[in-house]
Structures are given as structure tokens and as C-alpha cells.
Specification:
- The protein has 148 residues and is an all-alpha fold.
- The chain has seven helices and no strands.
- The mean pLDDT is 89.
Length: 148
């Protein structure tokens, strides 16, 4: 079963169970995925939409939720923070677990030993090696700590 099929099945199950919050979150996620799918079809008709591409779309949505949580915390809106955190937990169930800080550091150490020394080169290679399992801010902070 593909991730897109799982999202659709979970949407149906949520509707049957009457879980309005879960249905809302999955609908928004599916809207983002369908928009990305339409964009891809316009560029290359007939190209399949892989699970990795679905995960990339979901990770963008997760990043938006995290940014919203930070803004709501600054605005002292605990009610909206709680809602966004709940939505984030639902979306996080569909993406692979992120790498720990130790795993990120180990990857970057390996790249440095491999001969990559500058920040941009390390960032590019690290993000390629981790394939979206670590966010760019964390990777950038670790690189700055290692070469700075």
C-alpha cells in the first residue's frame, strides 16, 4: 500500500469514526499532495508519484506547523499551540522518524573526513545523505559547530 493510499484510507476511517480533527488534518495534507501531483503531471505527464515525494510534501506541511507553533508561542496563544501540536502529531505518523542529533553529527563527521570542508558543500552533501530525515536548521547548526 502506498502512502497516498494510506492517507486516503485513514481519511475514510476518520470520517466513519467521527474524528473531525484527524479528518481535517488529513484533508489538508491530501490537498497539498494533490497540488504537488498536479504540478508534477503538468511537467512530466504519466510520471508516477512516489512515496518519497509524498513524504517531502508532508514534511513541508510539518515544517509549516512547527513555524506556526513558534509564532503562536510568541503571541501567547496556548490554545492554538495545543491545536497545532495535535495536528503535528497526526502528520508525524506518516513520515519516517527523524535522525537523532548524534546520527546527524556522525554523518557530518564522515563528510568532513571525506574531504568536504566548506559550509555550502557540507550542507549540500549532508542533506543529500539524510534525504529529509533531518531538518536544515539542525544540520546547519551542527555544521557551524563542527567547522566554526
Amino acid at each position: 500500500m502506498t502512502l497516498l493510499e494510506k492517507l486516503n484510507d485513514d481519511l475514510k476511517a476518520g470520517m466513519k469514526a467521527g474524528d473531525r480533527n484527524r479528518v481535517e488534518v488529513i484533508r489538508f495534507a491530501l490537498a497539498s499532495v494533490n497540488a504537488a501531483l498536479k504540478e508534477k503531471i503538468m511537467k512530466t505527464p504519466g510520471a508516477p508519484f512516489t512515496d518519497e515525494e509524498v513524504v517531502a510534501v508532508l514534511q513541508r506541511d510539518i515544517k509549516r506547523r512547527k513555524d506556526a507553533i513558534e509564532l503562536f508561542k510568541q503571541g501567547k496563544r496556548a490554545d492554538l499551540v495545543a491545536k497545532e501540536e495535535g495536528d503535528l502529531a497526526i502528520l508525524a505518523g506518516y513520515v519516517p522518524a527523524g535522525l537523532s542529533m548524534a546520527e546527524v553529527e556522525k554523518t557530518i563527521d564522515g563528510l568532513i573526513k571525506g574531504g568536504v570542508k566548506d559550509f555550502n558543500g557540507l550542507m549540500r552533501e549532508a542533506m543529500k545523505a539524510m534525504k529529509g530525515r533531518a531538518d536544515g536548521k539542525t544540520v546547519g547548526d551542527v555544521i557551524k559547530k563542527k567547522i566554526g
